[in-house]
């Protein structure tokens, strides 16, 4: 299959035009058509010579994300279920905030990490997405916002899949997102979330970017975390926290720890006390997340009063903490829920 045009960085496009005996500025023109004008075909690139457009058509594909369905929440959240060229399905979500629009992107078809409270892992991992397939989610979402003269101002890499298990494609995606001649999204407006793939936390720290790092922790000790997140058996809490401290020391940046509260599992006062002790002294922030109901998992939400009690204990122990504002709850906007339903209906 021909490579996706979005898979090429500006530098790679410059090499390609040079190989085709074209001046380097043609790469900048192509890049502008892709990310500023956001066209859907090479034929629309009107300032590119016809012969070069024919060559682009011969050498590259555009990523085709066919919209299977789209839901819009009363709070403005828009959730897309896209079909890829190989007929696999992925999800992308636009979230509207007071400070702008953010997009949550998917990095894999499915997930092999196996968190027991997450719909994304149902059916396991099918494959990694290419950088171009991740980029296409942002471009297509931005095209949707172009209709109302709005802009994507921030990105969260928290959709289906484990980004740090698709590390190289994720980093290539990020390089395109922050490029000043492209979508030009500020690094500090991008967050990547990992379940704790320790070797790549060190690798990401050494990249010395300004991109935010979030860690899905969800439990204050190994026994409980391993029961909720099998990845903890590969990378236990001690090793994860050591990597997090290296990241903080190397970058000087704060880490966000995501903690999904599951009724009767990890939401007791003693869990809050233990979590505060584990994170004591770290430059970090805890984001408490009321767990989404996934019928196949059977977990229940923590009652509101218990969520506030958990938060109060962390605050008392000087841990910076917030409760995530829910968005798109009426359209099942949590990652994996829509895809799981699509997979189920497709096999009937």
Report on the structure:
This protein is α/β, with parallel strands linked by helices and about 350 residues long. It folds into two domains: about 5-60, DNA polymerase, domain 1 (Orthogonal Bundle); about 65-345, TIM Barrel (Alpha-Beta Barrel). About 35% of the residues lie in helices and about 20% in strands. The protein has twelve helices and twelve strands. A ten-stranded mixed sheet has the order 1-2-3-4-7-8-9-10-11-12, with helices on both faces. Strands 5-6 form a two-stranded antiparallel ribbon. It starts with 9 loop residues before the first helix and ends with a helix.
Key terms for this structure?
TIM Barrel, two-stranded antiparallel sheet, alpha/beta, 12 helices, DNA polymerase, domain 1, 2 domains, about 350 residues
């Amino acid at each position: 299959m021909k490579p996706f045009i979005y898979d090429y960085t500006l530098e790679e496009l410059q090499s390609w035009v040079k190989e085709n005996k074209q001046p380097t500025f043609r790469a900048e023109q192509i890049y502008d058509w892709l990310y500023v004008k956001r066209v859907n075909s090479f034929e629309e690139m009107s300032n590119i010579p016809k012969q070069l457009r024919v060559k682009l058509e011969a050498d590259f594909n555009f990523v085709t994300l066919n919209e299977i369905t789209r839901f819009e929440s009363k709070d403005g959240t828009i959730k897309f279920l896209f079909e890829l060229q190989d007929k696999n399905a992925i999800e992308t979500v636009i979230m509207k905030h007071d400070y702008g629009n953010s997009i949550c992107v998917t990095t894999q078809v499915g997930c092999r990490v196996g968190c027991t409270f997450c719909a994304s892992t149902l059916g396991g991992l099918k494959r990694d997405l290419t950088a171009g397939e991740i980029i296409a989610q942002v471009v297509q979402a931005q095209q949707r916002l172009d209709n109302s003269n709005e802009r994507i101002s921030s990105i969260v890499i928290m959709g289906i899949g484990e980004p740090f298990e698709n590390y190289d494609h994720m980093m290539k995606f990020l390089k395109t997102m922050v490029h000043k001649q492209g979508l030009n999204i500020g690094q500090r407006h991008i967050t990547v979330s990992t379940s704790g793939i320790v070797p790549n936390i060190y690798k990401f720290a050494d990249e010395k970017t300004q991109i935010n790092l979030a860690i899905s922790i969800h439990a204050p000790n190994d026994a409980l975390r391993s029961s909720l997140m099998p990845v903890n058996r590969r990378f236990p809490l001690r090793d994860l926290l050591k990597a997090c401290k290296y990241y903080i020391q190397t970058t000087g940046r704060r880490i966000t720890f995501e903690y999904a509260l599951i009724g009767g599992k990890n939401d007791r006062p003693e869990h809050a006390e233990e979590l505060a002790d584990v994170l004591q002294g770290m430059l970090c922030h805890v984001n408490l997340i009321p767990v989404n109901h996934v019928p196949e998992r059977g977990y229940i939400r923590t009652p509101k009063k218990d969520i506030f009690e958990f938060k109060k204990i962390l605050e008392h122990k000087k841990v910076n903490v917030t409760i995530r504002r829910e968005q798109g709850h009426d359209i099942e906007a949590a990652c994996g829920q829509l895809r799981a339903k699509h997979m189920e209906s497709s096999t009937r």
